[in-house]
Amino acid sequence: MSILAADDFNRANGGVGAVSSDWVSVVAGMLVDSGAVQSTTVGASAAARWVRVLPPADQWVKATIKALSNSTCNVVLMARVSSITANRNFYSAEANGPFGKNASVVLRRQVANTSEALSPVVVTEINVNDTIMLEVVGPVLTLKINDVALITASDANHSSGYLGAWNNVGVGTLTDARMDDWQGGDFLNAAADPGVIRNVFKRPDDAAASASFVDGVTARKYRSIVG
């Protein structure tokens, strides 16, 4: 697996799109606040997609759940997001509050802005700093909590798109549904990817740098301790 997108939200408070051009709103209102992300209005959803990189069709997205205070709170990951208009299309993995043994998860698809469950709702224990993950490989979707697969479903409506995040607080305060340490990527092996620059220095001691390196100061030497 490779990481192609990541945001720890450790920056000034403000709308995700306003303070980082990597994000574009899907539903206006995603807010960075005190190092995590939440919505700006109680009773309204907020969502954004990461646009710096368009990942391959087989993709994953993951985040740390910081708050799920009641049953109206949702922390949602989005994959294959293909539209930011009124006709929004994407897959999602949804965690619903409250924290504890009565939390729940579900896989959904949204087609032309109409949401439909792809799986039954599964009741499971979720606590602060647990992780939620959505994997999409071909038509197969998998939802994981703390890297343990809880739900798998199949659907062929969406073939490609961006990664994103969605928050909602139906009743309560804005800080009742929050996520942090969002990241996503593909299933390629970064070490085997020819587009990834790497050098493990597995050569004789004191050998000069390979032709891949250019040194403008002096010829560098390498010891086996770095190999």
Determine the fraction of residues in helical runs and give it as a percent range. Answer: under 10%
**CATH superfamily caption of the largest domain:** Exo-inulinase, domain 1
CATH topology of the largest domain: Jelly Rolls
How many individual β-strands? 17
Show unreliable segments: 191-203, 207-227
CATH A-level architecture of the largest domain: Sandwich
**What is the mean predicted local confidence, pLDDT?**
86
Q: Which outline best applies? A: globular
CATH first level of the largest domain: which class? Answer: Mainly Beta
The proportion of residues in beta strands is: over 45%
The radius of gyration computed from the alpha-carbon positions, rounded to a whole number of angstroms, is 20 Å
Main β sheet profile = 8 strands, antiparallel
Tell me the span between the first and last alpha carbons. 24 Å
Helical stretch tally: 1
Question: What structural category arises from helix and sheet content?
Answer: mainly beta
Give, in order, the helices and strands: EEHEEEEEEEEEEEEEEE
Detailed description of the structure:
With 227 residues, the chain is an all-beta fold. The chain is 2% helix and 46% strand. It has two domains: 2-188, Jelly Rolls; 197-227, no CATH class. The protein has one helix at 16-19, and strands at residues 2-7, 14-15, 23-27, 30-33, 36-39, 45-50, 59-68, 73-81, 90-96, 104-111, 114-117, 122-123, 131-137, 140-145, 148-154, 162-169, 177-186. Strands 3, 6, 8, 9, 10, 11, 12 and 16 form an eight-stranded antiparallel β-sheet that branches. The chain has a six-stranded antiparallel β-sheet with strand order 1-17-7-13-14-15, with no helix packed on it.
